[in-house]
Write a structure and sequence with these properties.
9 helices; globular; mainly alpha; about 180 residues
Length: about 180
């Protein structure tokens, strides 16, 4: 018998069904720790094939994780970068392991490429030039380069799924620059 209830928090959120966890996530007043737990549990269920879930159900869990991730972070640069990084990594993993879907922007590699490029504050040439001498830079610039490295960590998963064109070429440049970044 399932005794977990969305009216009062379960000690272990991982025992909740999708509908229970989604309802729990949507209730106002969730604190950051609860939202982070929901994001992680949802992402884990999307990643794990051992649970016997099919691709559609795993993508449903991933979408819950993405929705919670969007609510979880503040406006500070590191928080925004973490939100984008979590989003990009999960979307890229789903695209690479469960297959792209051009009808759904979450699973469309070209949409993910565009979203990624929109988040990158520098072009690859400038980032590479700074990255080559990052030890001599002020802490703020090192931080910005680190955020760029984090925001491009998923590129190897999607590059093979991208159509030829400008976005593909730009992300290929970022893949070449990443090793130079701190």
């Amino acid at each position: 018998m399932d005794t977990a209830s969305t009216s009062e928090p379960a000690e272990d959120l991982s025992v909740l069904t999708f509908d229970q966890l989604a309802a729990f996530a949507e209730r106002p007043g969730r604190h950051r720790g609860e939202l982070e737990g929901i994001r992680e549990i949802s992402a884990l269920r999307a990643y794990r094939s051992e649970d016997g879930l099919g691709p559609a159900e795993r993508k449903r869990w991933a979408k819950l994780s993405l929705r919670v991730n969007a609510r979880l972070h503040g406006d500070a640069p590191w928080e925004q970068a973490r939100m984008a990084q979590n989003d990009f990594m999960l979307r890229a993993w789903i695209i690479d392991h469960l297959g792209p879907d051009a009808q759904d922007p979450n699973w469309d590699p070209d949409a993910l490429a565009a979203d990624t490029l929109a988040e990158l504050a520098l072009n690859p040439a400038k980032a590479g030039a700074l990255g080559a001498r990052w030890r001599a830079l002020p802490a703020e610039q090192i931080g910005e380069l680190r955020r760029l490295k984090n925001l491009t960590g998923h590129l190897d998963l999607i590059i093979g799924h991208l159509r030829p064109g400008r976005s593909h070429d730009q992300l290929q440049e970022w893949l070449a620059v990443r090793p130079l970044l701190p």
